[in-house]
Amino acid sequence: MTSTEVGVRRVFLCDDQFEMRQALTAVITAIPGFAVVGVGEDGDECREGLRAEDVDVLVVDVSMPGGGAELVAAVRAEHPDLAIISFSAHSEPEVREAMLAAGADDFVLKTGRLAPLREALLRHSPVVE
Length: 129
Prior knowledge:
Shape: globular
Largest sheet: 5 strands, parallel
Distance between the termini: 20 Å
Helix content: 40-55%
Mean pLDDT: 88
Low-confidence stretches: none
Number of strands: 5
């Protein structure tokens, strides 16, 4: 699932729900200039995938196994230039604050609308020339 196309922002998705990974892949690949280069269903697969792929942006579920603020902090330490967007059904302010404090660049709620995630991707994704 590797894309080396110039100008493409490479996204890695981490979510424990297969259907969510499928839906996000479809939405993200429909955005011009974006490609999903890998997916993971837990924290271990997420970290392994980030080591194996050249990635610009990580979209990570907050409550997947091995996820949360600990995963974001570990990823941020290993990949300081990676854009990290946390994607969660949890709307509690303390969850958002914990993810941002751990190093996420953005926190997007899973509301059934994917426009906020699309906007976050565009906002936090470097253009590769």
